[in-house]
Specification:
Helices cover 78% and strands 0% of the residues. The chain is an all-alpha fold and 288 residues long. The model has no long low-confidence stretch (mean pLDDT 82).
Length: 288
């Protein structure tokens, strides 16, 4: 039960950061923002640096891959967030639950049940409804959708490796790898951050959404099932919609909110299939 409450709190933090990040990258370059976010996350977890050696070569490789996926996912998501509404971005991001069984089908040749296909069809229809909403864009939503696909790969990795390695060490390596990759990409647009809008977003996303958020995810996935984890993660778009409405002034209209509802219905339908897919992946032989 504590693991589930912790995951709910993490999804709420992730939901509110959609608003903060959108405001921050409107006045500060995107790539330096992300690099600083993961720098802060790395510093937050640095007291656990002595535990990294416990990972061994295999654990270091797995954590580095997870960190690389996080970096790519956040670049795609944040570029998309610049071009669409907070609420749209939140619901489209939630489609990683829908995409997990499809990625398993493509990469691992695992069969996907009929319910999952219905969920995919519903979520895709909802995405199409969101595409024409004022304040958003089809291009922005597609970038966020690509990010959701990357996040689904990261979740598959976490389901496999979280029970096997020290949570603090694994998360620290994730954050450092994401910072290293993003800092190289950020060099051409590097600038000194200023103002509370930027610094507030950096501190909240770096400390709470990244360092503590992914640490809690790694710890919680050692304590609870894939089904429960996937179900709790469906709350992220709900939080994003709440904060987008109350803090960012999102007014999507009937078509937009209808699209969000259809996406959510697709996510809820596909969630059991996604969880079953993760369990089946865990039972397959993987490299050490």
């Amino acid at each position: 039960m504590p693991a589930l409450f912790a995951l709910v709190a993490v999804t709420a933090v992730w939901g509110i950061t959609f608003v903060q990040v959108k405001d921050a990258v409107a006045i500060y370059p995107l790539l330096p923002f992300l690099a600083l976010r993961f720098a802060i996350a790395s510093v937050t977890l640095s007291p656990g640096a002595g535990r990294v050696r416990s990972l061994g070569p295999a654990g270091l490789g797995a954590a580095a891959l997870a960190g690389g996926l996080l970096a790519v996912g956040y670049v795609l998501q944040t570029f998309g967030l610049q071009r669409t509404s907070v609420s749209s971005a939140g619901f489209v991001t939630g489609m990683y639950v829908v995409l997990t069984p499809l990625i398993a089908l493509v990469l691992f040749r695992l069969r996907v049940g009929a319910t999952a296909w219905v969920g995919v069809a519903l979520a895709t229809g909802g995405l199409a409804m969101l595409a024409g909403v004022h304040g958003g864009s089809a291009g922005g939503d597609l970038l966020v959708l690509a990010a959701a696909a990357v996040y689904s790969l990261q979740i598959v990795l976490m389901e496999r490796y979280a029970p096997r390695y020290d949570a603090i060490a694994f998360t620290l390596v994730e954050m450092v790898v994401a910072f290293a990759g993003l800092s190289l990409a950020a060099i051409p647009t590097a600038a000194v951050p200023h103002g509370w809008t930027v610094w507030g977003a950096l501190l909240v996303t770096g400390i709470f959404a990244s360092a503590l958020g992914f640490l809690v995810q790694t710890w919680a996935q050692r304590q609870t099932s894939a089904t429960r984890t996937a179900l709790v993660f469906t709350l992220e778009p709900v939080w994003a919609a709440i904060f987008g409405y109350t803090l960012a002034g999102d007014r999507l209209g009937a078509l937009g909110w209808g699209g969000c509802a259809v996406i959510m219905a697709g996510i809820v339908l596909a969630e059991p299939a996604a969880a079953q897919t993760l369990v089946r992946l865990l039972r397959r032989p993987w490299p050490a």
